[in-house]
Amino acid sequence: MSAVHGPIIIGSERSEAGIPAAMEILRAGGSALDAVERGLRMCEDNLEDHYIGTSGLPNARGIVELDASIMVGSTRAFGAVAAIKNYPNPISIARKVMEELPQHALLVGEGAEAFAEYLGFSKAELLTPEAKKLWKDQLKTINSESIEGENTKATTGDERYRMASLELVKRMAPHEGPWGTINIIALDKSGELVCGVSTSGYPYKHPGRVGDSAVPGAGNYSDIRYGAAACTGRGELALRSGAARTIVENIRAGMSPEDACTAALLEAAALPDDFRAELRCLALTPDGRHGGASGMQGSTYTLMTEHSTGPEFHPRRPL
Ligand code: GLY
């Protein structure tokens, strides 16, 4: 992949809901930090997306818990919130953790909610009627073949995960009754490289479960010297393999972004995991090279440069 000169932004599947607005910020000379936050907020507010923000799918108790993080390449400053309830824009709270609580990097649960309340963030009901219906239907059809919206087939690992989760649901009455994540990486005119990730995590997850999206080096990593990388998919595999940091280290060792992503996914794929499901990743370098890889055929990532008239879709290399 040849280098792109000037501002560039890339993101996972479904990031196209926010990437054009984020590129407007970069075109106007704004910061990568503002662009990533703006882009992910729009994705979090997209009610048609059930894997992030408002209308995200709930945990085993039927409650939506969100994870998000943001990382700045020049300083390796990092802010994150995890298992946060009732706040629709966790990416903005993650940014505030980074900027206003530099002695910390990650706040979870009640503590994250108290911080958001203190800063005056608005609360909202995140479980929309449509997401609630999807959740209830999913409980009825636990053996369904496809995970709607992720454009993929459930693996046997997904099935085992959902069966194990259903056991949790049964144990955790009362309850009411697919997964996904969005990440965006931006390079601005000043050369700053910022990576952000936001998710409602795995549906049916154990309450309090936190995936890779809120953990530096797992689902999110940015280092201005080499590159930034982010993951979507089975977060436990990205956590166990340190996937995002591995990708950046692979770039540091001289690999292209695509090769670096592929090598990291192969490393994760070698781990034993009864709940195996797909992992995807993408990376962007400070000189504008980009690439992605995926555990399945047909995956893409979204890209815009200053000259793009709209989101462009690039293939990820399948494993
Ligand atoms: N990759 C998102 C999650 O596992 O929660």
TrEMBL record:
GO terms for molecular function: hydrolase activity, acting on carbon-nitrogen (but not peptide) bonds, in linear amides. It holds the Pfam family Asparaginase_2. GO terms for cellular component: cytoplasm. InterPro entries: Ntn_hydrolases_N (IPR029055), Peptidase_T2 (IPR000246). CDD domains: Glycosylasparaginase. This is Unannotated protein. It comes from freshwater metagenome. The lineage of its organism: unclassified sequences, metagenomes, ecological metagenomes.
